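Treating backbone geometry as a discrete language has practical consequences that deserve illustration. The amino acid sequence and the backbone structure tokens for this protein are reproduced below.
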Amino acid sequence: KSANPQWREQFDFHYFSDRKDILDIEVWRKDNKKHEELLGTCHVDITALPAKQTNCLELPLEKHPGSLLMLIAVAPCTGVSISDLCVCPLGDPNERQQISQRYCIKNSFRDIKDIGFLQVKVLKAVDLMAADFSGKSDPFCVLELGNDMLQTHTVYKNLNPEWNKVFTFPIKDIHDVLEVTVFDEDGDKPPDFLGKVAIPLLSV
């Protein structure tokens, strides 16, 4: 019930060179659980923003009244990566030793915000639901930790996909939950949900 909402939320998007350069933003209004209405959209060209500084932007909503006030910073990606199984960070003994030393007890207070990092190996899925008329699916896997999100490539026409990828996330809150969701890619349409698992970090 506000025409001037304040969210004060921070989201981290991991921007890789092979991704698109436009940040798409949508503002929605929700009446109840069933009814939602689009209040406007705006777009930010990431390549046009100065790097290594916080940019304050007031973005008018396209074809709708109102604007969004946002702080956007483009900075080098630290602690986040996607790699193959053969080159995962903890697989290298030297790198594993450096990581162990970085998070040993005597270094606990060197950087209070640097709690640690999570390494996840996404190997495969088994017996997924068929989402296509052909009796197959085009599955990909999305990993979310806090407001961080990474995803695998799509394996086409397969109910038993193998991704064999390693993902690393910096941990900002030990009470966060790792959510792993499998979707079916559906062309230009929104992906179909195939299943989900939630893993609290405290259980690892």
User: Anything to note?
Assistant: The first strand starts at residue 22 and ends at 30. The chain has a mean pLDDT of 86. The radius of gyration is 20 Å.
